[in-house]
Specification:
- The complex is a heterodimer of chains A (about 220) and B (about 950).
- Chain A is α+β, with helices and mostly antiparallel strands and about 220 residues long.
- Chain A contains four helices and eleven strands.
- In chain A, strand 8 and strand 9 form a beta hairpin.
- Chain B has 24 helices and 50 strands.
- In chain B, the strands form 14 sheets. In chain B, strands 41-42-43-40-34-44 form a six-stranded mixed beta sheet.
- In chain B, helix 5 packs parallel to helix 6.
- The chains are: A alpha+beta (about 220), B alpha+beta (about 950).
C-alpha cells in the first residue's frame, strides 16, 4: 500500500476533546506524514473518454467536517452562511446543508484550523465526516443535463445558482450537493454515504455516456 | 398489381425524401427500395403496395387510411419488433418488414373466414359465447389467443438502453405546427426555458404538405425557434399531463436511448396539437383505396407518392378541395368531386375486398375509380385538456368539439381552439406564448422566493397576467359522420356502426358503457379517429344531439410509451464496506442483506467458527448501525428510548439496551457507549439502522425539541471489525500501544479510543456476540482495509482467520442471542424475550412503558427459549411448527436453527407458549416433511458457555 500521502484526519477530534474517552495517550497525534494512505471508496478504473464534455473526479480524501448548532450561537455567526448557500473562507468551503447543520470542506489542515477557530459556547457539535462521506466533483456545462437524468430537482441557474447547497436523491442515493463552479465552469460537489460511493459513481458515469465523461480518479 | 397501383412521382417541390439516398428493404421477403426520409408506409406505396394488413376481427384486407402515426391499418412487424406504426417509422436500410396477424400470408389469410360469420361476431361476442361452461375457459383461451392481433415478440431480443430525464421548463408546447411554433418562439423570447414537442419527425404541422408559401412560413418559424433557444424535441409526444403540470414526454428519437421518458414539471403547458382528420362512415369505407384527404396530401407533397390513377373526392372543407387540386396536379384523374357543402354524398364504396372499383353516390350514380378521398371534418385531440380537468363541448356549427374550461397554467392554441389562416394561427400562437411566458415568470418568482437555495427573487411578485387573447373564428362546417349506409367506425377494433346501434338497443346506450361493451375507441388509435363518429352514431340511435350524448374522457397516455421507457435506467443502490475489495479477492461468497453486499462465508463456515473458538477470527461488521450522539441531554434521550436506565453510565462504559415501540413490541437492540462527558455512540442492528435514526429524530423533533442532543449517523464513517477468540487480546495488543488492554484496565462492556495499526481515533469496544473474548474495532473507513490487513499479518502465528455472516449467526445462536425481527416478530413484546430485568418500570417514562406495564402481568403468547432436538443430528428448518404432543395444536415455532460445530449437535431458538416454555419441557417439532421429532427446552438461552466465562476472559 502506498504510504506517501499524509493523513488528513488527525486534528478534528481535538475540537471536542474535552470529553474524549480515556486512552493510553490522550494527546495522540497519530502518525506524521508517511502514515497509511487514504483508501478511496472508488476501486475501479475507467477508460479514457476523448473529447468528453464532462469530467468526474473522486475527492473523497478531502476533509469534511460537520458542525451542528442552532442559529444564534456564536459558532453559527462565525460559520456565516445561511441554509441552502455556501461561502469560501480562506481555503475552506462552508456549506449550510441543513437549517442547523454546516459542512466544512477543505484540506485537513485548513478544515481543522477553521473548526479550531470556532467558538463552541453553547450546544455545538463537531463531527468529522471525512470517512463517512465520499465526495465527487462533476464538472462541465452538461453537468446539469446529467443531473437531470438521475435526479428530479430543478438544476437551472435560477433554482441552483453557483454556491447553492441542497440535499437530493441521485439515482436513489441520498446526497448533499453543492454547486461550486470552477473558473466560471459549471461544477458540482456531490457527497454521499461512503458505502454507496462505488454504486453512485458508476451510475453517474453511466448517465454521462451520452455527453462523454472523463473520469479522473 | 393493377395499373391503378400507387407509384412514385417525379420530384415534388416540398418533398422530404432524399432521392440520392436509396435504401433497400424487404416486404414479405421481397426486395424493395425506398429513400432516406421515407416512412415505411410511403416506401411501400412508392413500390405499389396498397394492401398492408388484415383487420383485427374479420381479417379484411386493409390499405393505408391516414398514412401517419394514427393509421389503424398500418401496423407491421419490423425484424423482431412487432406493432411498428408504418405511417410514422422512418425507413432504414435493410429493414425486414412483414405484415402481422395473417396466416399463412397477407394475400391468403385463412382467418378471413371470420368475416363470413361476421354477423355472429357482434359486440360482446366473447362475453356471451365463452362464459360457460367455465371449465372450458382454458381451452377457449388457447384458441382465442391464436386470433389475437399483434405481431410476434421474440423473447431473446436484447434489452435496449432506455432512459429517463427530469426537466423543469418554464413552458412546454405540445405541438409544432404554426401556432405551436409561434407560441414557443414568443415564450422563449424572454429567455425562459421552452420545450417544443412535436409528434412527427419534422416541425411545421400542416404547413409541410401545403403550398410553397406554407413551406416558406414553416422554414421561417423553425429558424426563429432555433434562434430563440427553444429546446426542440421532434418525434416526441406529450403523452400525459398530471397534477401541477407534471407533463410526461415520450422522446422516441434519441441518440443514445431507444426511448426516453421526460418527466417535466412545466410552469405553463400550451396545448397545440392541431386537428386530426375524421373518417366517414359508409358501406365499404374500409376498402383499400378509401383514404383521408390528409393522407394523400402528405403522400404527394412530402413523399412524392401518387396514390392511384383515378379518384373521387368527397369534400366538405377547403382541405378536401386542396387534396383534389394536389391529385389533379400530379396527374390523378379526379373523376368526380362530391361536394358535401352542396348536399352531395357518398353511399357506398364498391369492389372486391382487395381493391376499390366504383363509388355509389347519393344521387344514385356510380363512378368508376380506384381511390375515394374523404374530407368530412375534424376531431380536436383534447386529451391533454381532459387530463387537466376540461370537458370539451360540442359545437354543431363547425361540427367539432372545443375546450371549455379556463385554466391558469394550461393554455390552448391553434386548430384545437379555432380556425384561421396560417397568419391568424401564428398570431394566436404568439399571443399564447407571450401570456404563458408572463405567467411562468410569476411562478418562477414565487418558487425562487420560497426556496432557500435559489437565486434571490428580484422585486415584488408580478401580478398574474389576465388572458386577453383574441379568440380564433369557428368556421362553418357541415355535420358529416355517417352516410345513409353502415360502415366501419373503429378500424382498429373492426367495430361497425351497426354494432353500435345494436349495442345501444341492448341497453348499452351511455357512451362510456358503449365504448367498453363494443371496444369502439379502445384500439391503438385510442379514439383519435373514431370517438366523434361513435358519439354521433349513438346520438342518432338515441334520437338525441351530440351535446346531449356527450363524449368519453381521454386519459393518459395520448400516445403509447414502452415499458422500457417507463422503467428508464434501473437504479438499484448497493452498499459495500471498505473491506469489500479484499472479500472479493479472497473468495467470499456474497449475500445481499438489505442494500448491503456482505461476505456470507469464505468456503467453510463451520471451520470459521471452530478457528474463532480455538484461535482468533476477524469479521467485517461495518453495516452495524452507529449513531453519534452529542449534547448534555443524551442520557435523557437514551432513557426515553431504551427500557433500562442510562442516567449514570460512566465515561468509557458500555451498556446493552432493548428498544421498544409505543406498543411494547421490540423495535431494536444494541449497545451504547459513553465516549465523553456529552458524547455517546449508539449502535443498532444492521437492518434497523435507518429505522432507529428516524425513531430518535422523531423523539427529538416532535416530543422533546427542548432537549439538547445532536444525533448524526456515522455507520460507514467507521469500518467495524470484530476480533474474537481466545487469542484476540494478544492480536489486538500487537497493533495497539496507546490503550491498556489488561482485563482490569479494559474490561468487558467498556469502550476506549486509541490508535490501531497506526490509525488514530479508532474506537475499541469490549463487546461481542460470539461469546468469545472479543474486541470490536471501529476504524475510520478510509483506513479500514489497512487495519484488516494489519490484523491478518500480525496474527499469522496466532492462527488468525476470517469469518463471515454465517459463522457470526452460528456463534450468536450458540450463545443464544436473539435477533430482532428473526427470533422476535411484530407481536413480540419485551417480556417475551426473557429480559424482564431490563424493563425498568420505575423510570419516569420511556417508549412503550404503558404497554409494558400491562404486558408484565399478561399471559405472554410466545416466550423466546433455547431448544435442542433429542436427536442431535437433526436440524429443524427455521419456521417449523411446534405442536402439542399427539395433537396438531400449534404452540410455537423454531425461529433460528443451526448445526453447532462447537457442540457438534443441532441447536435452536424458538417461540413457545408459556406452559411449555419451562426448562426441561419436552416439545414436539413438525419438520417440513411432516415428520415429528422431540426436542427439549433448555435452561439458558446460551447453548454454549452460559456463564459467559470466555467472553469476560
Amino acid at each position: 500500500m502506498p504510504t506517501s500521502t499524509p493523513r488528513e484526519n488527525d486534528s478534528v477530534a481535538s475540537s471536542h476533546s474535552s470529553g474524549t474517552v480515556p486512552s493510553g495517550d490522550p494527546s495522540s497525534e497519530g502518525p506524521a506524514s508517511g502514515g497509511p494512505a487514504f483508501e478511496s471508496p472508488i476501486n475501479k478504473t475507467y477508460p479514457a473518454a476523448v473529447g468528453a464534455l464532462l469530467s468526474l473526479g473522486d475527492e473523497s480524501e478531502v476533509a469534511k467536517i460537520i458542525v451542528r448548532t442552532a442559529d444564534g450561537t456564536r459558532a453559527a455567526d462565525q460559520l456565516g452562511v445561511a441554509f441552502g448557500a455556501s461561502r469560501r473562507s480562506d481555503s475552506v468551503l462552508i456549506c449550510g446543508q441543513r437549517p442547523t447543520e454546516w459542512l466544512v470542506i477543505g484540506t485537513a489542515e485548513a478544515a481543522a484550523t477553521f473548526v479550531d477557530g470556532l467558538d463552541l459556547t453553547g450546544h455545538v457539535s463537531v463531527i468529522d465526516h471525512t470517512h463517512s462521506r465520499a465526495l465527487f466533483r462533476l464538472t462541465g456545462d452538461r453537468g446539469r443535463s446529467l443531473l437531470e437524468k438521475v435526479c428530479s430537482l430543478d438544476w437551472s441557474d435560477q433554482m441552483m445558482p453557483d454556491g447553492a447547497v441542497c440535499s437530493a436523491s441521485l439515482a436513489k442515493v441520498t446526497v448533499d450537493l453543492v454547486r461550486n463552479d470552477v473558473d466560471g465552469e459549471r461544477s458540482y460537489l456531490i457527497a454521499c454515504d461512503r458505502s454507496f460511493a462505488q454504486y453512485l459513481f458508476d451510475a453517474i458515469v453511466d448517465a454521462g455516456q451520452e455527453f462523454g465523461i472523463d473520469v479522473n480518479s | 398489381m393493377s395499373n391503378s397501383a400507387p407509384t412514385r412521382l417525379p420530384q415534388q417541390p416540398g418533398e422530404q425524401i432524399d432521392r440520392t439516398a436509396p435504401l433497400g428493404f424487404t416486404w414479405e421477403g421481397k426486395r424493395l427500395q425506398g429513400f432516406a426520409g421515407d416512412t415505411i408506409a410511403s416506401a411501400l406505396m412508392g413500390n405499389g403496395i396498397q394492401v398492408v394488413s388484415r383487420s383485427m376481427k374479420y381479417h379484411r384486407p386493409r390499405g393505408f387510411l391516414t398514412a401517419d402515426y394514427w393509421d389503424p391499418n398500418g401496423f407491421v412487424q419490423v425484424g423482431d419488433e412487432p406493432n411498428v406504426r408504418s405511417g410514422h417509422r422512418l425507413l432504414e436500410a435493410g429493414m425486414a418488414v412483414d405484415p402481422q396477424n395473417v396466416w399463412p400470408s397477407l394475400d391468403r389469410d385463412i382467418k378471413a373466414a371470420n368475416g363470413l360469420v361476421g354477423r355472429f361476431l357482434s359486440a360482446g361476442f366473447y362475453y356471451k359465447t365463452f362464459i360457460r361452461p367455465q371449465r372450458l375457459w382454458p381451452t377457449y383461451e388457447k384458441v382465442l389467443a391464436t386470433f389475437a392481433p399483434g405481431g410476434t415478440v421474440d423473447l431473446d431480443t436484447p434489452h435496449g438502453y432506455y432512459d429517463k430525464r427530469y426537466a423543469h421548463p418554464d413552458v412546454v408546447v405540445a405541438g409544432g405546427g404554426p401556432a405551436g411554433l409561434a407560441a414557443a418562439i414568443a415564450a422563449a423570447e424572454g429567455g425562459g426555458h421552452v420545450m417544443l414537442v412535436e409528434h412527427e419527425h419534422r416541425l411545421g404541422g400542416h404547413l409541410l404538405w401545403g403550398d410553397e408559401q406554407d413551406r416558406a412560413l414553416a422554414a421561417e418559424l423553425i429558424e426563429a425557434a432555433t434562434r430563440a433557444g427553444v429546446e426542440i424535441l421532434a418525434d416526441s409526444t406529450v403523452t400525459a399531463r398530471f397534477e401541477d403540470n407534471w407533463v410526461a414526454i415520450v422522446q422516441r428519437s434519441h441518440p443514445v436511448a431507444v426511448e426516453r421518458l421526460i418527466k417535466a414539471r412545466a410552469k405553463m403547458l400550451i396545448v397545440a396539437p392541431g386537428l386530426i382528420e375524421r373518417p366517414y362512415v359508409f358501406a365499404g369505407n374500409d376498402k383499400p383505396g378509401v383514404m383521408l384527404s390528409g393522407a394523400v396530401r402528405r403522400l404527394i407533397n412530402q413523399y412524392g407518392v401518387k396514390p392511384g390513377d383515378r379518384a373521387v373526392v368527397l369534400t366538405a372543407n377547403p382541405e378536401g378541395d386542396a387534396a383534389a387540386a394536389d391529385l389533379t396536379r400530379v396527374g390523378v384523374k379526379v373523376s368526380r368531386i362530391v361536394d358535401a357543402r352542396n348536399g352531395e354524398n357518398v353511399v357506398s364504396a364498391n369492389g372486391s375486398s382487395r381493391a376499390l372499383r366504383s363509388v355509389t353516390l347519393a344521387d344514385g350514380s356510380e363512378v368508376e375509380t380506384d381511390l375515394l378521398i374523404t374530407a368530412t371534418g375534424w376531431t380536436a385531440p383534447t386529451s391533454l385538456l381532459n387530463m387537466s380537468g376540461d370537458r370539451p363541448v360540442y359545437h354543431p356549427g363547425s361540427a367539432r368539439f372545443y375546450p371549455s374550461a379556463v385554466m391558469d397554467t394550461v393554455l390552448s392554441t391553434g386548430g384545437i381552439v379555432g380556425d384561421g389562416t396560417a397568419e391568424e394561427l401564428v398570431a394566436h400562437g404568439t399571443a399564447t406564448g407571450r401570456l404563458a411566458a408572463a405567467r411562468a415568470a410569476v411562478t418562477a418568482h414565487r418558487l425562487q422566493a420560497m426556496t432557500a437555495r435559489a437565486a434571490p427573487a428580484v422585486g415584488d411578485e408580478p401580478l398574474w397576467p389576465e388572458d386577453e387573447r383574441q379568440a380564433l373564428a369557428r368556421n362553418d362546417h357541415p355535420e358529416l359522420f355517417r352516410s345513409t349506409t353502415h360502415g366501419i367506425v373503429d378500424f382498429s377494433e373492426d367495430v361497425g356502426s351497426k354494432d353500435l346501434v345494436a349495442a345501444a338497443a341492448e341497453g348499452y346506450d351511455s357512451v362510456e358503457l358503449l365504448k367498453r361493451y363494443t371496444t369502439a375507441t379502445m384500439g391503438p388509435a385510442q379514439g383519435k379517429l373514431e370517438t366523434v363518429n361513435t358519439v354521433a352514431v349513438l346520438a342518432e340511435a338515441r334520437g338525441e344531439t351530440i351535446e346531449e350524448v356527450g363524449t368519453t374522457v381521454w386519459r393518459p397516455p395520448y400516445a403509447p410509451i414502452s415499458l422500457g421507457g417507463l422503467a428508464g435506467r434501473v437504479f438499484e443502490p448497493v452498499r459495500v464496506s471498505s473491506i469489500q475489495p479484499w472479500h472479493e479477492a479472497n473468495g467470499a461468497v456474497p449475500i445481499v442483506a438489505g442494500a448491503w453486499i456482505r461476505p456470507e462465508h469464505y468456503g467453510d463456515p463451520a471451520a470459521e467458527v471452530r478457528n474463532t473458538r480455538e484461535n482468533v477470527g476477524i469479521t467485517d461488521v461495518t453495516p452495524l448501525g452507529k449513531l453519534d450522539l452529542q449534547g448534555p441531554d443524551v442520557p435523557k434521550l437514551l432513557s426515553q428510548l431504551y427500557t433500562n436506565k442510562w442516567m449514570k453510565l460512566a465515561v468509557g462504559s458500555v451498556r446493552y439496551g432493548l428498544m421498544c415501540a409505543e406498543d411494547g413490541v421490540v423495535l431494536d437492540d444494541g449497545v451504547t457507549g459513553r465516549l465523553g462527558d456529552d458524547h455517546y455512540l449508539m449502535t443498532t442492528t444492521s437492518s434497523g439502522a435507518a429505522t432507529v435514526w428516524e425513531w430518535v429524530e422523531n423523539w427529538l423533533q416532535t416530543e422533546h425539541p427542548e432537549w439538547q442532543v445532536h444525533v448524526t449517523p456515522v455507520t460507514t464513517g467507521y469500518t467495524s471489525i470484530n476480533v474474537a477468540g481466545p487469542n484476540s487480546r494478544e492480536l489486538v495488543g500487537r497493533l495497539v500501544d496507546d490503550v491498556d488492554l489488561a482485563p482490569e484496565a479494559f474490561s468487558y462492556m467498556q469502550v476506549r479510543t486509541g490508535t490501531v495499526a497506526g490509525i488514530p481515533d479508532c474506537i475499541m469496544w469490549r463487546i461481542g456476540f460470539t461469546g468469545e473474548l472479543s474486541y470490536e474495532l471501529h476504524v475510520p473507513s478510509g483506513h479500514g482495509l489497512h487495519v484488516w490487513q494489519a490484523l491478518l499479518d500480525a496474527g499469522a502465528d496466532l492462527g488468525v482467520g476470517v469469518f463471515g455472516l454465517e459463522a457470526q449467526r452460528i456463534m450468536r445462536l450458540e450463545k443464544g442471542h436473539f435477533i430482532v425481527g428473526q427470533d422476535t416478530d411484530g407481536l413480540t413484546k419485551a417480556p417475551a424475550t426473557g429480559m424482564t430485568a431490563l424493563i425498568k418500570l420505575d423510570k419516569d417514562d420511556f417508549a412503550g412503558k404503558t404497554e409494558l406495564a400491562l404486558a408484565m402481568d399478561e399471559e405472554i403468547p410466545g416466550l423466546v427459549v433455547a431448544i435442542q432436538p433429542t436427536d442431535p443430528t437433526i436440524v429443524p428448518e427455521e419456521a417449523c411448527q411446534i405442536v402439542r404432543a399427539n395433537s396438531n395444536e400449534i404452540i410455537g415455532r423454531i425461529t433460528s436453527s443451526r448445526m453447532s460445530p462447537t457442540l457438534n449437535r443441532s441447536i435452536c431458538l424458538g417461540q413457545v407458549a408459556p406452559e411449555a416454555a419451562s426448562a426441561g419441557s419436552e416439545l414436539t417439532v413438525v419438520l417440513v416433511n411432516g415428520r415429528r421429532i422431540t426436542a427439549k427446552v433448555m435452561e439458558h438461552h446460551a447453548h454454549f458457555d452460559p456463564e459467559g466465562e470466555r467472553l469476560r476472559g
